Amino acid sequence: MSTTAATLESCVASLRSSMQLLESSINILETGVSDLPRLSTVLQTTRHFELVSEADLQSAQSSLTAEIAPEVSSLLARVNTYLDALARREKSLIAKAELQEGRLSRASIGANRASGYGGNASAGKGEALTGLQTVKAQQLRQKKERLSYAVGRLELQAGQRERQLRKSMAFQGE
Q1: Which UniProt keywords apply (predicted)?
Q2: Within 10 Å of residue 126's Cβ, how many Cβ atoms?
Q3: How many angstroms separate the CA atoms of 169 and 69, rounded?
Q4: Which of 142, 141, 168, 153 is nearest to 82 (CA)?
C-alpha cells in the first residue's frame, strides 16, 4: 500500500500543482480581461461623417443651382433696373443742378446790375436771393454726390454678384 499511497500522493500533488497552475492562469486571464468592457467602448468606432457618392453630390448641386439660378437672375434684373433708374435720376439731378447754376449766375448778374443802377436797397434783395440760391445749389451738389456714391456702390455690388454667379456657374460646369 505504500507504493499505492505514494503513487496516489504523487497524483494528488500533481493534481494540486495543476490546480495551482490553473488558478494562476485564471488570475492572469482575469486581470487581462477585466478591462475588456472599457476597451470595447474605447476601441469602438463611431462614424462622425457620412460619405456621399459623387453622383448624389452632383445631383444635389444641380438641383440647388436650378433652384437658385432664377432667383439670381431675378435679383440681377432688379439691380439692373434700379441702376438704370438711379442713372436717370442722376442725369435729371445734373440737369437740374446746371439749370440752378444758370439761374444763380443770371440772378447774380441781375443783382450786380441792380446794385449798379438802383442803389443799396435793391442790392440787399439781390444778395439775399443769391445766398438762398447758393444754399440750394450746395444742397443739390451734396445730394448729387450722395447719389453718385450710391450708384458707385450699387455698381460694385452688382459686379461682385455677377462674379460670384460666374464662379458658381463655372464651378457647376466642372
Answers
A1: Centromere, Chromosome, Cytoplasm, Cytoskeleton, Kinetochore, Nucleus
A2: 19
A3: 9
A4: 153
Ranges of residues in the chain whose predicted pLDDT is under 50:
118-126
Separation between Cα atoms, residue 132 and residue 126, nearest integer Å: 10
C-alpha pair distances (Å), 53 with each of 57, 58, 116, 135: 6, 9, 90, 68
Give the HSE-up count for residue 124: Cα atoms under 13 Å, Cβ half-sphere.
Answer: 3
Sign (positive or negative) of CA dihedral 98, 102, 103, 105: positive
Alpha-helical (H) ranges within the chain are 2-33, 36-43, 54-118, 120-173
Per-residue confidence (pLDDT) for residue 12, from 0 to 100? 93
| C-alpha grid cell, residue 15 | 493534481
Q: Are 144 and 86 in contact (CB under 8 A)?
A: no
CA distance 95 to 34: 92
pLDDT score at 26: 93
**What is the reported pLDDT for 32?**
82
Output the nine-digit C-alpha cell for 110.
441781375
